[in-house]
Amino acid sequence: MDFTSTRSKKNGTSNSNDSDGRDSRAIVRRRPPTIELLASTSSTLATIMFTWTIIRQYCPHDLRQYLHRYLNKFIDYIYPNPYVRIAIYEFVGERLNRSKAFAAVESYLSTKLSDDAKRLKAEVGDNKNNFSLNIDEYERITDEYENAEFWWTLSKISGSAKKSTSLYPEPDRRYYQLKFHKKHRNLVTESYLKHVLKEGREIKVNRRQRKLYTNGTGNRLTIHRQSTMWSEVYFEHPANFDTIAMDPEKKHEIVEDLLTFRESKDYYARIGKAWKRGYLLYGPPGTGKSTMIAAMANLLNYDVYDLELTAVKDNTELRKLLIETTSKSIIVIEDIDCSLELTGQRKIKKEESSKDEEKVKEKEKLIKEHLKKEEEEVKSRVTLSGLLNFIDGIWSACGGERLIVFTTNHVEKLDPALIRSGRMDKHIELSYCTFEAFKVLSKNYLNIETHELFEEIQELIKEAKITPADVAENLMPKSRQEAAENSLRRLIRSLEELKRAAEIESTKEEKRAEKSKESKINSCS
Ligand SMILES: Nc1ncnc2c1ncn2[C@@H]1O[C@H](COP(=O)(O)OP(=O)(O)OP(=O)(O)O)[C@@H](O)[C@H]1O
Ligand SMILES: [Mg+2]
């Protein structure tokens, strides 16, 4: 079709001169063939568009759909399209659940925003302090993967465009559209989409605001309900391994162990073991067991499930709670010795060492009565075997990537079956404060790494049984102006007192031993 020459004849411009005095007919004749092709293409397209507008306005819905399908085929036939498009819808299934693939793509694309992207949207995510940016509708993102280019757009099918007989208006259906050249089809199906999903999920997990879940709300109603559910709050504990006071080598070993666990998905799969690991933290009160759990969660970026065993009705409920936990989490049972058939003994034991025996007996009686009442109400029938099943039964493998942590002040009271390797794989003792641990605390609390009083403290701390919690309390400045030296002196006084008390106790002990020796000799003679 000689479009240009026909037009020039019709317009009668073939003989006219342009402003430079040159013959415009010559210019028309010199037009390259691509321009001619474009002109012809645009005229065909214009015809198609016009026809389509007529169809949209006057045809019934079903006929329109039918024609639309064939029109697309016709266009593909005339202008073969080398691109493939894949749509990932936001809501899927009959119940219209939010698609996990859509969420993963959303996270993935949020890291691929180019500087010249014009239409963006900001959303407050889980982490309420931060906005997350993403592309808005019809903005395009170009991504590169293994030297191939991919284009993503967020589009929508307008709900109102689809006439619905329902009373409720149909909502818009948003979807991400991936467009690529057909030569990359295998790359997309075999690796690119997997790559997008994997990266997207990881980004989502890392960005989420971590949660602390608990089943023991202190509310009796939760216990009598048909099934106990986890309740949650945001996990915001600031503890980390840098601020934990303990032997540096031991600390390094624990950190390495945790990081190795996190990276060992394939290893666990290869050896045929569920991807979970048990930690037993034991030691006197105030030596940092709970603090270490928080530091573990912060290091690994895991959620925490604080399981109150005494609030669990029976083994079935325990299993339900386990199934409801997610991966990338730490399941904690604190004071395990008090949780299982030993409820409350720890409290009584602590009080026994008190001097005022009468008061202790009275308190003991009250506590026992209270516990009896509580037991009657709660009737927790979790057994040891139920707990063992919880740790390493078949159900414990669902989800994967979980730590189970028990803490106790009395490791000797625990059933050996509960803490054998394979259940509690790593036993960590947290003990009284050493000089090395003190240095970490002085750095944390006073921001000093050396001082002339350190030598004295080093000597005293060797003999005194002082917990990191007590050292921390002494080091904590009591007013805003208090000098570090004051805190150190306060600690020295406490250490000296402990030393004196230990000396008195040991002389008493010696005397008692002598007396019992004498009485034995007397009874023999
Ligand atoms: N090893 C430690 N490093 C740093 N801080 C510590 C350490 N141990 C204790 N603390 C401090 O003492 C406080 C009490 O510690 P934590 O609750 O972790 O002790 P615990 O071993 O869990 O005690 P309990 O057996 O009574 O539950 C914490 O607030 C923490 O700041
Ligand atoms: Mg604790």
From TrEMBL:
<dbReference type="Pfam" id="PF00004">
    <property type="entry name" value="AAA"/>
</dbReference>
<dbReference type="GO" id="GO:0016887">
    <property type="term" value="F:ATP hydrolysis activity"/>
</dbReference>
<keyword id="KW-0547">Nucleotide-binding</keyword>
<dbReference type="Pfam" id="PF25568">
    <property type="entry name" value="AAA_lid_At3g28540"/>
</dbReference>
<dbReference type="InterPro" id="IPR025753">
    <property type="entry name" value="AAA_N_dom"/>
</dbReference>
<dbReference type="InterPro" id="IPR027417">
    <property type="entry name" value="P-loop_NTPase"/>
</dbReference>
<feature type="region of interest" description="Disordered">
    <location>
        <begin position="1"/>
        <end position="26"/>
    </location>
</feature>
<dbReference type="Pfam" id="PF14363">
    <property type="entry name" value="AAA_assoc"/>
</dbReference>
<keyword id="KW-0378">Hydrolase</keyword>
<dbReference type="InterPro" id="IPR003959">
    <property type="entry name" value="ATPase_AAA_core"/>
</dbReference>
<dbReference type="InterPro" id="IPR003593">
    <property type="entry name" value="AAA+_ATPase"/>
</dbReference>
<feature type="domain" description="AAA+ ATPase">
    <location>
        <begin position="275"/>
        <end position="434"/>
    </location>
</feature>
<dbReference type="InterPro" id="IPR058017">
    <property type="entry name" value="At3g28540-like_C"/>
</dbReference>
<comment type="similarity">
    <text>Belongs to the AAA ATPase family. BCS1 subfamily.</text>
</comment>
<dbReference type="GO" id="GO:0006950">
    <property type="term" value="P:response to stress"/>
</dbReference>
<dbReference type="GO" id="GO:0005524">
    <property type="term" value="F:ATP binding"/>
</dbReference>
<dbReference type="InterPro" id="IPR003960">
    <property type="entry name" value="ATPase_AAA_CS"/>
</dbReference>
<protein>
    <submittedName>
        <fullName>AAA-ATPase At3g28580-like</fullName>
    </submittedName>
</protein>
<keyword id="KW-0067">ATP-binding</keyword>
<dbReference type="InterPro" id="IPR050747">
    <property type="entry name" value="Mitochondrial_chaperone_BCS1"/>
</dbReference>
<keyword id="KW-0460">Magnesium</keyword>
<feature type="region of interest" description="Disordered">
    <location>
        <begin position="504"/>
        <end position="525"/>
    </location>
</feature>
